[in-house]
Backbone:
């Protein structure tokens, strides 16, 4: 995927900007894209917020979610393993780092899901390349320069960059825009470290309305102009949100605590931004890991717990979810300097009132390591992203498949996620849309192993009324438009079955 500014779209945006920022870009309708129904523009759930914490450096998963009852763990780490008497007990023989007291309290309240052994095939151990893989949603052998969140935001804001949304489409607390938010239409995020300083920096700055030259350098200049235009538009919005918003309690004085404090003010101040990115570094623990790792998880735990209580106090917690990720885990065996080197699979945390709570997946298997002596992953990280996009942010399965160029089964992270971990062979059929249907309805289904399928309409007595679609289908997501004209008003069943014995049924109401 190549990141280049769509020149026609950029020139159109410059034409809009030439009218002046004072008219308010958020009111421009972007007629070039037409009126797109919500379900076709990403089907996003209004008000849902995803807060991502990037754990920079490669978090040691085995000392975060600890197999403290496994003798192999202690044998591999004679100097840095954490004994179960010191750790915080979870479930199925696993323990949480003793510094993560606030997270443990949230876990006990059912507000933390922990997905174990998340990774991908042929993992890369370079900080830079591995971070790019996680940010883009690619596999180890594919180079993309668009972020998975950028591709999601492109579906949510189809008029960008011709028209900018009323509120920032994504916010990153930091100084350099992450690849996570890049797309072939440009970057979707607004990046700053302090709302007031950001406003002071761009306050009074006019939009540059000169059309760039039709050259490669002109295209690069177009990106810079686009960023500048968005900054001018959003500086006041962000400042006003931070001023109107509040913290219901004091935040920790750590940098991560400060970042969460800002996010709290922006959300409570009325910003409709769906994705935030926060950062905490220091996880490259090659030496003297115990103290450094303990301080890091104390910092995360305190900041996250404060934010959750704050959002609950302000009646905002039902629509917010926090997700952590790091570019890789660490080696199973400790090294010679009381630390750990770059490894593979690791756990991911999901915090909020909409999660199922508890551990997801089997414990790390220290008896069956890969050829390098590292952990084997159980679930692909793109399964996690697909679950977040669909079950938290409300994206449909077809667009989720398009974001990753493949179909990934979801994990039971949220209360509306699948009830169980995916099996070796499975299919998925989503509810028809619209439902009830008066004219036609869209049927979407996913195939996770090549199979012959039958998609059919049945009455409530089990009689097949119409074979809608059939044949051999490869792995992927599919959509079929079904005309309901000619069928009597009432309740029907849509059934998807395969030659492998799988069957999923959804109810359809025809008006």
Residues:
């Amino acid at each position: 995927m190549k990141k280049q500014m769509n020149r026609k779209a950029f020139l159109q945006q410059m034409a809009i900007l030439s009218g002046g920022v004072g008219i308010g870009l958020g009111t421009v309708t972007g007629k070039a894209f037409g009126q797109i129904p919500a379900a076709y523009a990403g089907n996003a759930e209004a008000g849902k917020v995803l807060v991502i914490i990037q754990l920079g450096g490669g978090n040691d998963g085995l000392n975060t979610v600890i197999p403290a009852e496994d003798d192999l763990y202690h044998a591999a780490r004679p100097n840095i393993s954490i004994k179960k008497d010191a750790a915080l007990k979870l479930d199925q023989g696993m323990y949480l780092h003793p510094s993560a007291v606030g997270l443990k309290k949230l876990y006990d309240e059912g507000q933390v899901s922990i997905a174990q052994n998340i990774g991908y095939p042929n993992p890369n151990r370079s900080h830079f390349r591995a971070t790019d893989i996680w940010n883009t949603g690619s596999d180890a052998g594919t180079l993309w320069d668009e972020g998975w969140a950028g591709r999601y935001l492109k579906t949510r804001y189809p008029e960008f960059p011709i028209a900018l949304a009323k509120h920032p489409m994504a916010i990153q607390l930091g100084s350099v825009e992450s690849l996570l938010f890049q797309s072939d239409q440009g970057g979707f995020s607004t990046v700053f470290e302090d709302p007031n300083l950001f406003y002071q920096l761009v306050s009074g700055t006019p939009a540059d309305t000169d059309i760039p030259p039709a050259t490669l350098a002109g295209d690069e200049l177009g990106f810079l102009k686009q960023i500048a235009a968005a900054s001018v538009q959003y500086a006041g919005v962000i400042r006003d949100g931070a001023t109107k918003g509040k913290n219901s309690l004091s935040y920790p004085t750590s940098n991560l605590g400060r970042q969460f404090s800002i996010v709290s003010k922006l959300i409570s101040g009325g910003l409709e931004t769906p994705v935030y990115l926060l950062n905490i570094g220091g996880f490259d623990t090659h030496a003297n890991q115990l103290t450094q790792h303990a301080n890091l998880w104390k910092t995360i735990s305190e900041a996250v717990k404060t934010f959750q209580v704050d959002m609950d106090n302000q009646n905002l917690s039902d629509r917010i979810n926090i997700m952590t990720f790091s570019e890789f885990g660490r080696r199973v065996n400790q090294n010679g300097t009381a630390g750990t080197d770059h490894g593979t699979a690791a756990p991911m945390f999901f915090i909020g009132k909409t999660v199922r709570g508890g551990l997801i997946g089997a414990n790390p298997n220290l008896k069956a390591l890969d050829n390098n002596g590292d952990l084997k992953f159980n679930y692909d990280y793109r399964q996690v992203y697909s679950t977040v996009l669909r079950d938290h942010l409300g994206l449909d399965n077809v667009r989720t498949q398009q974001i990753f160029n493949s179909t990934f089964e979801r994990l039971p992270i949220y209360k509306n996620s699948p009830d169980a971990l995916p099996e070796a062979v499975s299919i998925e059929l989503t509810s028809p849309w619209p439902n009830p249907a008066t004219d036609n309805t869209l049927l979407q289904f996913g195939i996770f192993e090549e199979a012959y399928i039958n998609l059919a309409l049945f009455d409530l007595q089990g009689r097949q009324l119409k074979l809608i679609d059939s044949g051999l289908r490869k792995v992927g997501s599919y959509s079929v438009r079904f005309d309901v004209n000619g069928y009597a008003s009432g309740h029907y069943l849509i059934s998807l079955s395969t030659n492998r014995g799988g069957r999923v049924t959804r109810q359809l109401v025809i008006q």
